[in-house]
Specification:
alpha+beta; Alpha-Beta Plaits; SH3 type barrels; 2 domains; 4-stranded antiparallel beta sheet; 13 strands; 21% helix; disordered N terminus
Length: 207
């Protein structure tokens, strides 16, 4: 069976067992974010394939999150909001994976049906570099996903842009940050006047 867990595999760079992958896991430590590619409009199907492979091939300790960056957007017809919504893929052709990159995990993920490659890999069995935190953060925030470590990159006086919500596109300077509630007060200019407004932390990114 295609998804049956294998005890040993061989690729162009290594010959490793799943037990060896566990040892590699201990050496590498923390998970990082990686981006794999798929054909446009096939992202959800490939995500399902990846989730199934993680389950059946013993990768639950290596892979924590698999994300297709989708948002609910209003359906507009002839310039009128119909009151309905649809899912919109914000980054067509990309699937985001939070994982510990071992030889075994790398082999399984890249050989999952529908995966066409990895961002940051030169090919020929070379594992990709993880996505920098500042690049993955806006993706997670656009989906309303926030963790405490994100707050470390923001301080009073920083200039930010609102990336979602009713004030999307607005730019301003941070006046205060409430980590407990997630509320951020910014000073922005509306119609030529500087105004203080409050947004959610998940709605901003640094500029």
């Amino acid at each position: 069976m295609a998804d049956e867990k294998v005890n040993q595999f061989t690729d162009s760079t290594t010959d490793i067992s799943s037990e060896d992958a566990g040892a590699s896991n201990q050496k590498l430590g923390e998970k990082a974010w990686y981006v794999c590619t798929a054909y446009s409009t096939h992202e959800a199907k490939v995500k399902a394939n990846l989730e199934r492979r993680v389950e059946t091939m013993g990768l639950k300790d290596y892979v924590s999150r698999i994300i297709v960056a989708e948002q609910e957007v209003p359906v507009v017809k002839d310039g009128v909001d119909t009151g309905k919504t649809r899912k919109k893929n914000l980054y067509s052709g990309y699937i985001y994976i939070e994982m510990i990159m071992t030889d075994y995990a790398w082999y399984v993920i890249r050989n999952t049906p529908g995966v066409t490659g990895f961002v940051g890999s030169s090919g020929k069995g070379t594992k990709p570099f993880p996505v920098p935190r500042e690049q993955i953060e806006p993706v997670l925030k656009r989906m309303g996903m926030v963790d405490d470590s994100m707050y470390d990159r923001y301080s009073v006086g920083d200039y930010v842009k609102v990336i979602r919500g009713p004030l999307e596109g607005t730019e301003g300077k941070i006046i205060s940050i409430n980590k407990d509630t997630g509320a951020v007060e910014i000073s922005a200019t509306f119609f030529g006047r500087t105004t203080k407004t409050e947004v959610d932390f998940s709605e901003i990114e640094r500029i």
